[in-house]
Structures are given as C-alpha cells and as structure tokens.
Design a protein that fits this description.
Layout: E1 16-20, E2 24-32, E3 38-47, E4 53-54, E5 57-58, H1 61-75, E6 81-86, E7 92-99, H2 104-118, E8 126-135, E9 142-151, H3 152-164, E10 168-174, H4 175-188, E11 198-204, E12 209-215, E13 218-225, H5 230-240, H6 244-253, H7 260-286, E14 294-298, H8 307-315, E15 319-321, E16 329-330, H9 336-342, H10 347-354
Helix pairs in contact: 1-3, 4-10, 5-6, 7-8
Length: 359
C-alpha cells in the first residue's frame, strides 16, 4: 500500500475519506451515478481535545481511535475501506526524471538510489513510494516520476488508527494532494473552467493557515502560517471564563453572550483578514505575480460571518468560501442545511473520498 496508489487512476471499491487533523476527524463517503456524477452519501465529524494530536503526531492514540469509532457510528457508514492522509510536513516528495521503458524492478532500484540522496534518515526507517506521472515535458525519452517518503512509524500510526477503529487502510495519501484534488472540481466550476486563473486557496485550520496558489493543475506556491481558528476559541475562553472545549462548542453553536460580535468576533475577523492580506503580499513580493483571480477560503473558520466580505475589501480580490460538495447530488442521509453550514471544513476529507474514482 503506498501514498501514491491513489494517483494512478484505478477505480476502487467503496471507500470512505477520513481526514485526521489536529482538532477533529472528518469523514466523507461519496458514490457515483450511472452517468458519473458524484453523490455525497455521508459526512460527519468528531472533535478532538487540545493536545491529542500535535504537529501531525498522534499523542493520545486511544482517545483519537475512540473518536474515529464515534465518527464512523455517527455517519452510519458500513464501508470498511478507508483512505487517509499524512500531513505534508511528514512526507518528503520529489519529482525525478527516469528513462522511459524501465521495468518495475529497475525503476524501484533507481528510485531507491535517488531517495538515498535526499532523505535525511536510513531507508530502513522509511516507507517509500513512487508513481510515473507521464512523459517528461523537458527531456525526450524520459518520464517524470513522483517519489514520496515518510518515516515508517508515522505511517504505522495512521494505519494503526484505522485498524483500531475496525477499518482497512487501503490508500495513504498526502493531505495537500487531497485538498488540491477536491479544489480541481471547485476551480472547474469557475468561468472558462478556471483555465489559466491564479487561485489563492487559504485553508484555515485550528492552529495553522496554509496558502496554496494554484494555476490549472499546478501548485505555484505553498506556505504555512501560524494562525487559525483556535485563536478565536482562546479569546472566547478568556473573555467569558469557559474551558477551551466549552468555548469551542459555543463558538460552533453560536450560543454566546450579546457582546460577542462587537467585542470578539469583529476584531478577530479583521485581524484574520489582515493576516490573509499579508500572506498574499508575501506571495507577490517573492514571485513574479502581482495579482490573483480568486481568493478561496476553506476550513471551519472560513464561514465566520463577514470574513469573505472583509477579505475582498482588504485585498481587492474576489473572495469565495469553498464548498467541495458544490454540484454534487445529496444522498438521503444528508441534510442540505448542514452541507451549507459545514462544507468548507471538509475539503481534504472530500478529496480523500474522491480517490475512489479514476481521475
């Protein structure tokens, strides 16, 4: 089982996408109509307590496994095959050129000798995978090969989590690949199918916000910044004396005192928008680009009232909140009101679930 099996375009039996982040586990199950349109059959999430997962490392295995079991039960799925992802920080990826026409064993040897040069630990400690992307655009007679490597203990953690929840880990992907796959559907719904457009995707997580600038199927820029939705939870917790978990629950349900909007929410939306503006400026100063066509906001925090409008005001670029389930049919177990409210948090989970179908 490899990270990149998913990229090879095989159709798989029913599988669920399971996105394990620092703050929650999210599940998505998709199906397809006879004409190939996607159907959202199930989606669910279960929050984690602070400290269960830190920097992509599972610190409290039993608690996280129990939350995964809970999300499976909550969703009602009977599917046991699961696609999960490694955090990008835990995977080293590299594109290399190899001569076309090599046999599988020859290619494996070449990949291992290349990997030896840039992986900072022994290959015995590493899960290594590769896939052929296609003919090289720059060098005739060669093929472009993508290599992915991660420490075995990190991979075993993810596989162990699936097993502990009674699931079978079928594919291990990379989080950033999964979110980009889900984004490819979102971008293709833009005017002219989004061709040649620069799209700045901000994924606002609990502790980290990542900016990826995408053009067609290429990622031009990728940078993480240390701010996210848990900062708002901390402000609520401090202001009103709730525990972090209570503050998070009240933030999601909207059950907050009258002065919340004016004293906490509006200033937070303002400072988050400024961080987004600064991240874009950094992109412009470190690349030849000086504008983007769209700013896309994903993650649970993306739906904060007024954020999209404030980002548009500050940056001058059209801003949208990402709905990875846009234009999908909804299965009988799915409520449309919940999709509208929660969809932006499911970008990676949706991309993982899409791995079931050939791209």
């Amino acid at each position: 089982m490899g990270f990149l099996d998913a990229l090879l375009g095989r159709k798989h039996p029913p599988m669920i996408g399971l996105d394990v982040s620092s703050s929650s586990v999210k599940l998505v199950e998709l199906d397809q109509t006879s004409t190939g349109e996607l159907v959202l059959e199930r989606f669910a999430y279960e929050p984690f307590e602070k400290g269960w997962i830190t920097d992509g490392q599972i610190e409290k295995f039993d608690e996280v496994a129990a939350a995964v079991k809970k999300v499976i039960a909550k969703s009602g799925t009977r599917t046991k095959n699961v696609v999960m992802a490694m955090p990008q920080s835990a995977v080293i990826t590299k594109k290399i050129m190899l001569p076309a026409g090599l046999r599988e064993e020859e290619m494996e040897l070449q990949v291992e000798s290349e990997a030896n040069q840039y992986i900072p630990f022994s290959l015995d400690e590493v899960s290594l995978d590769f896939c052929v992307i296609g003919p090289s655009a720059t060098s005739a007679g060669d093929v472009e090969v993508l290599i992915a490597a991660s420490r075995k203990d990190r991979v075993q953690d993810r596989q162990g989590l699936a097993e502990a929840a009674g699931l079978k880990s079928t594919i291990l992907d990379i989080e950033s690949h999964a979110s980009r796959l889900a984004m490819s559907r979102v971008v293709s719904a833009l005017p002219n199918q989004g061709r040649d457009m620069l799209v700045a995707l901000f994924e606002i997580g609990a502790d980290t916000t990542s900016l990826k600038v995408l053009r067609d199927d290429e990622m031009l820029y990728d940078r993480d910044q240390a701010f996210g939705g848990s900062q708002l939870t901390q402000l609520i917790s401090r202001q009103y004396g709730f525990s972090f978990e209570e503050a998070e629950a009240k933030k999601l349900s909207g059950d907050l005192p009258e002065d919340y909007d004016a004293s906490i929410l509006t200033p937070f939306v303002d400072s988050l928008s400024q961080e987004i503006g600064r991240a874009l400026q950094y992109f412009f100063t470190s690349t030849p680009h000086h504008k983007v066509h769209y700013v896309m906001l994903a993650g649970g925090t993306a739906t904060l009232p007024g954020l999209k409008e404030r980002v548009t005001d500050l940056t001058g670029f059209s801003s949208n909140v990402v709905n990875p389930f846009e234009n999908m049919h909804l299965g009988s177990a799915v409520r449309e009101s919940r999709v509208r409210r929660e969809a932006p948090a499911y970008l990676t989970a949706c991309g993982l679930a899409m791995r079931r179908f050939p791209q």
